[in-house]
């Protein structure tokens, strides 16, 4: 049985716990979210998606 989890949901969960443990300030979180939002609209989005897919596909082979 395969489990599919959105990377956005995963990063959101990690960000939630970082904010909850006070390891990340609210201002830095907004900056990180803004950076991700703007990065997704650039030409770098496709190579980043390809790299992420390749890394996720490589995990079961380890």
Q: Which short descriptors sum up this protein?
A:
62 residues, 0% strand
Explained architecture:
- This protein has 62 residues and is mostly helical.
- The protein is 69% helix and 0% strand.
- The two termini are 19 Å apart.
- The model has no long low-confidence stretch (mean pLDDT 79).
Mean pLDDT: 79
Oligomeric state as shown: single chain
> How would a crystallographer describe the biggest sheet?
none
Low-confidence stretches: none
Strand percentage: under 5%
How would the global form be characterised? Answer: flat
| CA radius of gyration | 14 Å
Number of helical stretches of at least 4 residues: 3
Q: Which H/E pattern describes the elements?
A: HHH
Tally of strands:
0
Class computed from helices, strands and strand pairing: mainly alpha
First-residue to last-residue Cα separation: 19 Å
User: Roughly what percent helix?
Assistant: 55-70%
Topology:
Blueprint: H1 7-20, H2 26-40, H3 45-58
In short:
With 62 residues, the chain is mainly alpha-helical. The protein has helices at 7-20, 26-40, 45-58. The two termini are 19 Å apart.
């Amino acid at each position: 049985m395969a489990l599919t989890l959105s990377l956005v949901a995963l990063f959101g969960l990690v960000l939630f716990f970082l904010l909850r443990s006070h390891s990340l300030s609210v201002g830095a979180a907004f900056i990180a979210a803004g950076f991700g939002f703007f990065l997704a609209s650039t030409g770098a989005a496709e190579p980043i998606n390809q790299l992420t897919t390749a890394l996720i596909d490589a995990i079961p082979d380890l």
